[in-house]
């Protein structure tokens, strides 16, 4: 009975996502938003397990920002509601992205700082670039933006999902946007392919603020230990530029910032270099999230204290999926330290 129930649930999930892309884009945006907004509020009021995890994560952000003031429950609940509304907007925009004009994606993106120029300068010079992002804002839109701006196709990694039809749907969707999508599992390690793309002067985009494969790096974020993807291993191995990046919602438009490159340390073993760069990545992620906490869509456990007691392999593939989930920090043969 449990197996039949799971299969039915997965089938319904697959149908729901297919309808999302086929139907939501046909509705006027204002009508669709009312539905998505109400669903987000219902989830917020019910305060299910994922909402509780979201609030536990956001509590760390608030405590870190207000170190001298105790965060009360009301402030946390207001923020978690805003975060769920932001998450609902993300999904609405994903389903409508195929019908969103390219001009709108480009003119609606507002950058802070000089990072945009640094990104395209590296690519123009033939140097590979790794864009490492936290789960913030709408990175699908940002991916479509960077392609529209002339970066060409970029490569990302996606977790395999249940049901398989949902995974395949997201792969097709992202491919239509110009993304090259590698499976996290079930197709060989993506590390080698990513390294090849970077050595050829390509662009790789990876959402990196969660250790999906249980093979990431422990860093300090918001004054606590957390586990993030070992994305820095790619930079150490290939010499590509590691550029932390954050995206958020800016009114009806989108905001983004590409931070300064995190350089590979001149000394130390490979593991020490990856650890040092990962810590700096965690620091930048914390800074970006603290500036726009309502747009951090982290409904999964990332802090070590919350992960304690979770059995290895006990975290099933997530649904819905998120762009460019992280990769295993494997070392190709002969790479050394």
Per DSSP E runs of 2 or more residues, the count of β-strands stands at 9
Average pLDDT score? 85
H/E element sequence: HHHHHEHEHEHEHEEEHEEHH
Radius of gyration: 19 Å
Proportion of beta-strand residues: 5-15%
Class from helix and strand fractions: alpha/beta
Helix content: 40-55%
Low-confidence stretches: 311-337
Largest sheet report? 5 strands, mixed
Could you please describe the fold and organization of this structure?
The protein has helices at residues 2-23, 29-46, 49-65, 73-96, 102-107, 115-124, 139-151, 164-176, 191-199, 232-238, 270-291, 304-307, and strands at 109-112, 129-133, 154-158, 179-183, 203-207, 217-221, 224-228, 241-250, 253-258. Helix 1 runs parallel beside helix 8. The model is unreliable at 311-337 (pLDDT under 50). It is globular, with a radius of gyration of 19 Å. It contains twelve helices and nine strands.
Question: Mind sketching the topology for me?
Answer:
Blueprint: H1 2-23, H2 29-46, H3 49-65, H4 73-96, H5 102-107, E1 109-112, H6 115-124, E2 129-133, H7 139-151, E3 154-158, H8 164-176, E4 179-183, H9 191-199, E5 203-207, E6 217-221, E7 224-228, H10 232-238, E8 241-250, E9 253-258, H11 270-291, H12 304-307
Helix pairs in contact: 1-8, 2-4, 3-4, 10-11
List keywords for this structure.
single chain; 337 residues; alpha/beta; five-stranded mixed beta sheet; two-stranded parallel ribbon; 12 helices; globular; disordered C terminus
Task: Give a brief outline of the structure.
With about 325 residues, the protein is α/β, with parallel strands linked by helices. Helices cover about 50% and strands about 15% of the residues. It has helices at about 1-25, 30-45, 50-65, 75-95, 100-105, 115-125, 140-150, 165-175, 190-200, 230-240, 270-290, 305; strands at about 110, 130-135, 155-160, 180-185, 205, 215-220, 225-230, 240-250, 255-260.
């Amino acid at each position: 009975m449990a197996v039949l129930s799971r299969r039915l649930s997965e089938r319904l999930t697959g149908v729901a996502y297919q309808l999302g892309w086929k139907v939501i884009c046909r509705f006027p945006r204002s009508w669709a938003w009312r539905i998505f907004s109400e669903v987000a509020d219902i989830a917020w009021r019910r305060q299910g397990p994922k909402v509780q995890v979201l609030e536990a994560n956001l509590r760390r952000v608030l405590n870190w920002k207000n170190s001298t003031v105790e965060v009360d429950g009301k402030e946390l609940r207001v923020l978690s509601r805003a975060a769920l509304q932001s998450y609902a907007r993300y999904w609405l925009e994903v389903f409508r992205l195929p019908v969103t004009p390219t001009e709108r994606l480009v003119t609606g993106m507002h950058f802070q700082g000089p990072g945009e120029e640094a990104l395209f300068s590296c690519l123009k010079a033939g140097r590979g670039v790794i864009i490492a992002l936290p789960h913030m804002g709408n990175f699908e839109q940002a991916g479509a933006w960077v392609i529209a701006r002339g970066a060409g196709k970029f490569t990302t990694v996606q977790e395999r999902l249940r049901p398989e039809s949902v995974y395949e749907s997201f792969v097709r969707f992202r491919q239509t946007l110009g993304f090259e999508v590698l499976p996290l599992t079930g197709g060989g390690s993506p590390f080698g392919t990513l390294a090849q793309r970077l050595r050829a002067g390509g662009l790789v985009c990876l959402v990196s603020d969660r250790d999906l494969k249980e093979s990431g790096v422990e860093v300090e974020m918001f004054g606590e230990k957390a586990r993030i993807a070992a994305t820095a291993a790619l930079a150490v191995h290939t010499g590509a530029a590691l550029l932390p990046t954050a995206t958020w919602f800016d009114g009806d438009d989108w905001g983004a910032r590409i931070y300064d490159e995190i350089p590979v340390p001149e000394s130390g073993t490979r593991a020490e270099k990856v650890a040092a760069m990962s810590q700096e990545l965690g620091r930048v992620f914390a800074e970006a999230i603290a500036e726009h906490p309502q747009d951090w869509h982290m409904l999964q456990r990332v802090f070590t204290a919350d992960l304690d007691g979770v059995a290895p392999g006990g975290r099933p593939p997530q649904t819905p999926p998120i762009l460019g989930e992280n990769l295993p920090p494997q070392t190709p043969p002969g790479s050394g330290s």
